[in-house]
Design goal:
The complex is a heterodimer of chains A (324) and B (145).
Chain A lengths: L7 E7 L5 H7 L4 H8 E5 L8 H6 L5 E7 L2 E3 H13 E7 L1 H5 L11 H11 L14 E4 L2 E4 L3 E6 L9 E3 L6 H12 L9 E2 L57 H4 L17 H12 L5 H9 L4 H5 L15
Parallel strand pairs in A: 1-2, 1-3, 3-5, 5-9, 9-10
Antiparallel strand pairs in A: 4-8, 6-7
Chain B lengths: L10 E6 L3 H10 L8 E6 L7 H9 L4 E6 L10 H18 L7 E5 L5 H18 L4 H6 L3
Parallel strand pairs in B: 1-2, 1-3, 3-4
Helix pairs in contact in B: 1-4
Classes of the chains: A alpha/beta (324), B alpha/beta (145).
Chain lengths: 324, 145
Amino acid sequence: MEKTKPKIKLAVYWAAACGGCCVSVLDVHEKLFEVVASADLVFWPIALDIKYSDVEEMADGSIDVTLFNGAIRNSENEHMAKLLRQKSRILVAYGSCSHLGGIPGLANFSNKEEIFKRVYEECESTVNRDKIRPQPENKVPEGILELPVFYNDVRPLDRVVEVDYYLPGCPPQTERLVEVFMAIVTGAHLPHKGSVIGAGSKAQCEECARKKTENKQIKKFYRPWEIIDDGITCFMEQGILCMGPATRLGCGHRCIAGNAPCRGCYGPVSDDSDPGTKMMSAISSIIDAKEPDDIEKVLEDLVDTAGTFYRFSLPSSMIRRKMI
Amino acid sequence: MSNNADFKPKILAFLCNWCSYTGADLAGTSRIKYKPNVRAIRVMCSGRIEPTFVLRAFLKGADGVLVCGCHPGDCHYHEGNYKCLRRYHLLQKYIQQMGIEPSRLKLEWISASEGKQFADLVNSFTETISELGPCMIKETMEVLT
């Protein structure tokens, strides 16, 4: 019998995520044949019916690579993060949510109580006269029913377990995933632990095709629907807030190519852990106003400052949650 | 917390080399007494002060942050203090959204001849922070889940 090269064992898991990361894995399209030719998918809740208990029975370190997407929002996410860390040789924080906290991380502008109150009491479509809230344990005649415990904070994966690599993006570009996967399969030289893989090391602006001039002067910020973009000039020069200056390269400029400003999903540029402060610096340099009143007037148009600058990175930023 | 009589605010002051640090120096050489709660860091220009510096100060336990630069029009580097002013306004907007009292961050222009004004500023700012009580950012960031 012909001896085949042993396949690597691959797992994909979603925690607090929208499912888009898992779909980005599916987006390898016909390359999936190459992937399954060299890898066995041992755990992938979106596609395969493998139970948590099956994972628990696997030997420690027996999964070669786990792509973990989603942030840590509740005790189930945390349990699976710890379990998959134990079972995996390489744990990859896949996508913005596990890398930085992502969109679910914006929940750090409120806390558990505020969220529960809104969802289970105040929401216009909610009828809940007895103000019932989810309980971690519920006694029923058949036994005890359990629900995960909802946490106060959303955390990125590396606040819970050790992470080997980060593959940023919302979702990560599938081409990057294939490159990284092939590098692992072929045993290519892997970067040092803790590296961001499948992305560049410079800011978006570095390779942005839009026309930029030295004379950047913002007199007014426009929201994208308030202005007709000329399709050629740098968004910032037109007064449209673009996260490009504080965002890592690697996405292939898909938003900008589609005439939408960068929202910052690839996270901060190397060696800079806080994209928001970087962005505040950048913007302040190009606002065309010197008097406090004029400055305030320009800034008035920046609706939701914190949410815009930390859209994908609030839980991993310096002030990672609102004070309560 | 503000009724805590033992509370001694920790205030970090970023002073520009050309005006404000010299102004603070003048307060010293003129033997003006002022509250000892301020720790000064000299930077070359108020335009050098990145928002990161301010946030890190709060994270490391500062109860208030004071930023001082040359008066508008007097910047040694022409425009640095205007950059600082704009950052300050933007930072104020941001910290307010994060639930941090805006009065914990203050920007004032102090020239090299304004030793007295610097001493007064330190005294009044220390008082403001004493009334506000300790800043809870450090503690909040340490608590998980």
